[in-house]
Structures are given as structure tokens and as C-alpha cells.
Amino acid sequence: MNIRNGILAAALLILNATTAVALEKPTGDVVLTVTGKISQPNAGDKAEFDIDMLEKLVSRTGTMETPWTTGKVTFSGPMLNAILEAAGADGETLTIKALNDYAADVPMSDAKDFDTILATRMDGKLMSVRDKGPLFLIYPFDEKPELYNEKYFSRSVWQIKAIEVH
């Protein structure tokens, strides 16, 4: 009987480790929609996030200079990779779309290889649309100065509303 219980317990641990946790539904205003090749939708075939959901994910804070701000600014927000994992994203390219329909294609590897964040806060305050919010893709310019160039500037979308996974 003990061996059977041990096997059952081991099987349950394996099942729990390989079963993805369902993405909760937003209770506040939706600020980000992830579509395309995802396996964890929470609204039809898309994954929707409100600010509270985003701020519960693994996050990062970095103080850096950017071409779009004056002096050093502190950005904080969820890691892009954490958002993609929560949505069950599985693709090669992300099309990141802004409120004004500007879009940039970003390799999925940027989320995995760099500590990229979707900043929700600048200097501790939630980012408004006027201040490039509600979400701003920020590369780790503070940790990797070699990223401070036009290639990554063009991928640094602000006023983000959606990500499509290809």
C-alpha cells in the first residue's frame, strides 16, 4: 500500500508540474491583449491582462537613460517573457502594437535573451498615455549598453495595447 501511495503521489507531482495554470480573467480595464500562437487564452482565443494581473508577474526595475526621456529614469514592470509564459506563447516573432496602430516586429528571442520589460511605471508612477503608457517596451539599457542603438530603439514601442505571437 505504501508503494502504491508513493507512485500515486509521484504521478500527481509530475501532472501538476506539467499542467499549465489557467490564466485568470481581468477584473479591471484591459490594457494588454495577446493573440496568435498562445495556449492560455482567458477571453475567447486571446489573453487579456489588466494592470493588476501584469504587476503580479515576475518584474524588473531598472534606472537608465533612454532617447525618449531626460536624464536617468526608473522603469518598472513585468518581464516580457513572464507575460508570454502566462499567455502560453509559442512563436518566433512578436508584433507589438501601439494605441496609434504603430507596430514593430520583435524576435521572441529578445524576451528570452534580454531582461526586457513592459514598463507599467516610470519613476514609481503608473504611466499614462500622455507619458508613453500604459505599457512601454524597455530593453535593459542599464545592464547591456550595447543595446543602446537604433536597432533596439525601433523595437521599443510605447503606448502598447497588443502583442500578436507568430
From TrEMBL:
Taxonomic superkingdom: Bacteria
InterPro entries in the cross-refs: OxRdtase_Mopterin-bd_dom (IPR000572), OxRdtase_Mopterin-bd_sf (IPR036374)
Transmembrane parts of this sequence: none
Signal sequence, start to end: 1-22
Listed Gene3D superfamilies: Oxidoreductase, molybdopterin-binding domain (3.90.420.10)
Keywords, in A-Z order: Signal
SUPFAM superfamilies: Oxidoreductase molybdopterin-binding domain
Residues of the Oxidoreductase molybdopterin-binding domain: 63-140
Name of this chain's protein: Molybdopterin-dependent oxidoreductase
Natural source organism: Rhizobium alvei
